[in-house]
Amino acid sequence: MIETIYIARHGFRANWVAKSNWTSPTGLARDPPLAAHGEAQAIELALYLESLPKDKQPTAIFSSPYYRCLQTSKPVAERLSLPIYIEHGLSEWYSPVAPGTGLFPRPKSAIELRTMLPEISPSWNTVEIDPSWSSIWLPSRKGEDLNGIHARTAGVLRHLVHAVETRPDMRHHKRILLLSHAATIIAVCRHLAGQPGLPLRVGCCTVSEFERRRDGDGGGQAGYAWNAVTLASSVHLTDKTSLRDWGLEDVVTDDVTGEVSFNDIGVPGTEGEEDDISGPQIYTSML
Q1: What's the confidence (pLDDT) of residue 133?
Q2: CA angle 199, 221, 8 (to 5 degrees)
């Protein structure tokens, strides 16, 4: 039975650095690597988790497939000697795609990343991308409104917790780490806390921690109640001036409908593509 869920955001992105000439290591659009500062943040995150008592450390890492999240997961996996499980349900949030501009990118599968990452850098040979975990959720390549990102994370949590607790090869895990993106993390925290309007700003490599309630009381979700121990804590980070914190209140919405009032642009060249299967993949996933 899962007793603790840690949730961390990726480190500082290279495309946030002025005059940065970054390229995507995976070849995927909108998939920047970490900046040097972000890599340092990831190491501090790993050192923090390693400093916890053995019976408090996470024993499984579930990461968004975007490279910045994988890079952030890597030092944790190395220091705790853990594999990384790829979960597309923890992917970046995109607002609804502008009509006629194509679709948003779909990151690589665990099997593809397992082969690709050591080709990007030999340093990836020190970490295992474990393909035994198939992603349980695929976000729509057409993007999501605010209700959509909350519905997605609720579904991901429900299926992920159930899968971990019922699979014979995984049900020994009591503490898990989710490595994701700001909007996705906020929606995850709101769901676990049972507070749909929870105000929260999430900085780079900050950590939230939820513990399963012993009494079963309260409004927590994912099938049972959770206590928020910490929310977006940066206590383990040396430089707190470059966290680039973000909150859903930063999203521009319509004053009347409350819906997102802007559309993201799809990836050029995908205008003629159809959105593939999205939503829960618990019985069909190969990703």
Answers
A1: 96
A2: 55
Q: What is the pTM of this model?
A: 0.94
131-185 residue pLDDT tens = 999 999 999 999 999 999 999 999 999 999 999 999 999 999 999 999 999 999 9
Q: Are 233 and 30 in contact (CB under 8 A)?
A: no
Q: Cα dist. 170→110, 174, 210 in Å?
A: 17, 9, 19
Q: Which residue has the higher pLDDT, 276 or 62?
A: 62
Residue appearing with tokens 């898990």? 176
Average pLDDT score, the chain = 92
Amino acid letter, 4: T
Burial pattern 2-16, b for ≥16 Cβ within 10 A else e, equals bebbbbbbbbbbbeb
Give the tokens for residue 150. Answer: 């909350």
Query: b/e per residue, 58-81, with b = 16+ CB within 10 A?
Result: bbbbbbbbbbbbbbbbbbbbebbe
Query: Which percentage of the chain shows pLDDT scores above 90?
Result: 85
Find how far residue 137's CA is from the centre of its chain: 12
For residues 142 and 104, give the distance between their C-alpha atoms in angstroms, rounded to a whole number: 6
13: left (phi over 0), alpha (psi -120 to 50) or beta: beta
Report how far apart, in Å, the C-alpha atoms of 154 and of each of 63, 149, 205 are: 17, 9, 22
Least confident range of 42-46, 123-127, 222-226: 222-226
Q: In angstroms, rounded to a whole number, what is the distance separating the alpha carbons of residues 138 and 22?
A: 27
For range 273-284, the mean pLDDT:
81
3-state DSSP percent of the chain in helix, strand and coil, to 5: 30, 15, 50
**Rounded-to-integer distance, Cα 178 and Cα 191, Å:** 14
